[in-house]
Structure formats: C-alpha cells, structure tokens
From TrEMBL:
UniProt keyword Ubl conjugation, yes or no: no
Domain of life: Bacteria
Keyword Isomerase recorded: no
Pfam family, one: Acetyltransf_1
Record domain N-acetyltransferase: where: 3-163
Keyword annotations: Acyltransferase, Transferase
Name used for this protein in its record: GNAT family N-acetyltransferase
Species lineage: Bacteria, Bacillati, Actinomycetota, Actinomycetes, Kitasatosporales
Species in which this protein is naturally found: Streptomyces bohaiensis
Amino acid sequence: MEYQLRVTRGDDWQRYRELRLSALRDPAAPVAFFEPIEDALARSPDGWRQRAVSHLLRTTFVVERTGDGGWVGMATALLTEGGHIHVVGVFLRPEQRGTGLAAELLGAAIAWSGKREVRLDVHEDNERAARFYRRLGFRPTGRLIPDPRCPERRTIEMTLSTPPAEAAPPDGGELRG
C-alpha cells in the first residue's frame, strides 16, 4: 500500500475530526491525550475547521492512503512562545503501528521545525511511545508535567537530542507502507 504525507487544510475538517475522535477512542488514549472525548464531540464544525488549518504557528501532518484517500495517522507541530517546536497529537490507527509511518510523521514535524528545538511530552505510563521517541533521538529534559485529569500521574517532556539523518518530506511526499 502507498501513502502520501501532507499538511491539513480547512476543508479537511471532517476527516480531521474523524481521525481525532478515533484517536480519543483508542484504548491508549488515557495515556496519550489530555483532551476528553466529550470536549471533542462538543466542538463545533467551525472549531474543527480552525484546528484543521495549518499555518505558520501550527501545522498538522497526515498520512493518507493514495488509493482511497483514507487518513491513517497524524501529528501536529506547534511553534511555542519560547521559540521551540512542540509536537502533539501523534496518532496512527492500530493497524498501521509498527510500519514506519509514525517515524515519517515525526520526520515531517522535525523537518518543519527547521533549526528550532523540537520537544514533545509522553505520559509516564506510555512506555511504547517513550521507546519510539527514544529511538528517534528524543531524550527526557527532566521536566515532569502533572496530568490534568489525574495530578499524581505525569507526562515526561522530551527533546530531540540528535536529529535523524533524513527527515520525511514536509508536504506531498510519497510513502510506502
């Protein structure tokens, strides 16, 4: 199967919504996302359009099947007030995990960052994701962030210590799965 990596647009909002709701319904969601599904379900179409639009401060990358246009994964890169890039909302449908597509998504976010520092947060109970990020060169900063739903649990902030040798194309790149 072949895939295309691209950035989202406002007119993608319905597919963005569907994939985000799938992410929030995933069994790993409690240790992967802070947003409760109830909040996402209550968001208006205009709110979804605004989240789907990529621009200078926020870009969402999606992996799309070239045959039917179905979305199988996404990741968002945010430019923070501190000047670094923060990657959030990393998700791949379960049947796509372990295929290398997540590394392609992160590669696109890293390429988009230019020379800026890239950070992300991983829940302390999400060891699979933490291993994946470590393989890509991310290392803990030492900063722990309380989980707003359960303050005795935390996320671990990680920063990219060694960029991968080759980053994914940031828009319109062809991928193979």
